[in-house]
Every structure is written in C-alpha cells, then in structure tokens.
Amino acid sequence: MVKQWMQWFKNGLATLIGLGLLIAGLFLYEFYKAHKKPITHHVALPEPCAFTAPKSFNQHEIIPIKVHAPNGGNRQLFRLGQSWEAIGEPVSIPPFTQTDWYNSWSGFEWEVTDTVKLTKPLSGYYCVAYADSNNPSQVYYQALHIHPDTVPPVVLISCTNTWQAYNHFGGQSNYVDNVRPAYYQKGLWLLNKIFPQLKPLVHLPFNRPYANGGDIWEHQHPALRWNEEDTFRWHAEWPGEWVTAAFLERIGVKYGVYTDRDLSNVSALQEARLWIISGHSEYWTEEMVAQLEQFLAKGGKVAFLSGNNLYHPS
Questions:
Q1: Residues with Cβ within 8 Å of residue 118, at least 6 apart in sequence
Q2: CB 300: neighbour CB atoms within 10 A?
Q3: ∠64-65-69 over CA atoms, to 5°?
Q4: I need a surface site. Which of 4, 94, 115, 169 has the fewest CB within 10 A?
C-alpha cells in the first residue's frame, strides 16, 4: 500500500511539474512576443472615429486628421475657452473607409482625409466633433492642442501620455488587455507581486482613435464640454485641463497649450516662466524628466494641480 501511495505521489508530482513547465513555456513565449514582436489583427471600427498626431499644432497650421467615416457626415469645430464655443459652421465630410488592420506597436496606417485650419488663430484647447450621416447622434470627438507662434510666459502641458495609457482602443491599454491570453496576464500579475520593481512594457501606439469616442465623459477620453446645467462633469478625469484654461482666460492671462510629446521634443518650452500641469500627468519619458530638471534649474516655476504625477516611466 505504501509503495502504491508513493507511486501515485510521484506520478502526481511529475504531472504537476510537467504542467508547470508547460505554463512557464507558454508564458515565456507570450512574453517574448509581447516585447519582441507586435500583434497584428483586425479591429471593429466605430463609425465615425479619427485620430491625428500627438503633438500640438501652430495656430496658423493646417491640421491633418485621419477619419474613418464609411457613411460620411459632418464635422464641427469647437474651442474650449470660457465656454464650449462653436467655431464656424458644420462642414460635410465625404464617405471614406479606413483599414481595420491594426498593429499593436505602430497602430493604424490610415490616410489623411480631413484638414482643419483656424479662421481666427488663437491658442487653446479645441475639439472636432464628427457626426455620422446615418445616425447624427453617433459622434466622435477629436481633441486638438493649439499653440501660438512663440512660447508665452505661461504654458499648459496636456497629459497626452496618460490619455493613451488609459486608452484601450485596439484591445490594450496599461489597464485593460483583451488581446493576450488570460494565463499570460495572470503570470504578469504574479511576477509583479514577487518583483514589484519590474514594470512590464506595454507598447501603446499613438496612431489610433480613443476608445468610446462617442461618450466624451469616459475616463480615457480627453474631450470635454458643459452639461445642461453649465457645470463640469467632475467624475471625468480631464475637465481639470479645461478648467485651468477657462480660469486663465477669465483673468486675462495669455497662455499656450502643448502636449507631452512637445515636452519631450520642444526645447523652446524652456523660454516660458511657468508650466502648469493640471491634469493627471502620470506617465513621463526620460526626455520629459530631463526637460523638467533643466527648467527648474534655470529658475522656472512648475504648478502641478493634481496628484499621481511622474509616477510611471513612459
């Protein structure tokens, strides 16, 4: 009997070891794919949706936008100043179908199908609303950041890296993964619990729309507006950026709007006297940190108006 129990024990142990090695092998294979090879797959595209470059644009610049609108429709430009102000009249957009083939590292390779140019050049937060011709209530809101010709003393830096970290369009964000197998995600969670200093890299491209673009109150979507009572929807993350801009305009302070990408690449931001970061600016690149240190060293002032800043490398 003892020998039989010992044999069962050995067989069970061998089976567990084999399963453990199989799971470990599958995990390592998925880990390799995640870090060495992008995933390409088809994505269901909402109608309409759009995206543009992650930088800010000059107030005189023609802004290229890549729009997926199989039914066509119209667009309306808004400026987010002291109020949600419509700029000009709605413009018709022709039908155009973009590819649904998505690369988890580089995003979508879409064609530019629309351009926007401000009729009255003015720095600030803007939003382009694209409405479907068959269903006008189906709207996608594309945020735009517009800066003046020269860097002003006061600069607003929009936390676009964090916007993308929470954006799960294409199936993945830093908090949602509908692409990788469940066992891989559980393995990463366990690995992070054992080695909390490890931060597995997730490739999140900028060349993609924002998820739930028709619902501008979503946490991961930056577009904003007033509700029927002319008050902000405070449960959304991004109204803080608009609030700051509205306040500066109310007291007559001129400002420029820039993005995290600009903070990484535009050395002219060092010419400002004050940087204001009013949003949830969680994800920072090494270049952004270097710019911040240089700015502070030369006597520049920085106002962080929210928490959880500079928390994750990007």
A1: 59, 60, 87, 126, 146
A2: 18
A3: 145
A4: 4
* pTM of the full structure: 0.82
Report pLDDT digits (tens) over 247-278: 999 999 999 999 999 999 989 999 999 999 98
Distances in whole angstroms, Cα of residue 177 to Cα of each of 97, 104, 180, 199, 245: 26, 11, 6, 15, 34
With contact defined as beta carbons under 8 Å apart, do 243 and 205 qualify?
A: no
Q: At what angle are helices 182-194 and 2-36 packed, to 10 degrees?
A: 90
Interatomic CA distance for residues 47 and 238, integer angstroms: 24
User: Which are the contacts of 67, defined by CB distance < 8 A and separation ≥ 6?
Assistant: 48, 49, 50, 93, 96, 98, 113, 114, 130
- Minimal CA–CA distance to 127: which of 58, 68, 213? 213
19 pLDDT band, cuts 50/70/90, is low
Number of C-alpha atoms within 13 angstroms, CB side, residue 302? 19
Segment 226-237 mean pLDDT: 42
